[in-house]
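Data deposition worksheet. Section B asks for the primary sequence of the deposited chain exactly as it was used as input, without tags or linkers unless they were present during the calculation. Section C holds the resulting structure in token form. Section D is free text for depositor observations; keep each observation to a single sentence. Incomplete worksheets are returned to the depositor.
Section A, Depositor: J.P.
Section B:
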Amino acid sequence: MKSPITRFTLLLALLVLPLFSYKATAQTKYSIMEMTTIESVIAGGMGRSKVSFVPEYKGVKEAQLENLFSLTGLNLGNVRKNEESIQSYLQQLSDDGWELVTSVPLTYSLQGSGLFMTRYIFRKAK
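Section C:
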């Protein structure tokens, strides 16, 4: 049979040990990266679509995306190219150790035009 001191020591260890691991994770510092995709919906191919990085990523502040519309309407080939470009950036960031924390979809529209934006927030331990 275990003595009361052994039980007390075991109980104390079970209560105190988790505090050490919490303190270590609570002090982790992160660098933050924001990637925003902006896809313009303006008929006739007049829109401007891009990817923006803050801070710049590998020397890139902005990169072009394809316009979603052409003179004939929605260009599904351009939609596909944009999806592939965005996925490529997400993969590159992941490969470089950036962890996606959250993404926020944003939409703005007026009669005959609009913007589809998605903001991706990444972090990386310093």
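Section D:
Strands lie at 30-42, 49-57, 60-65, 69-70, 73-74, 99-110, 113-125.
The helical segments are 4-26, 76-95.
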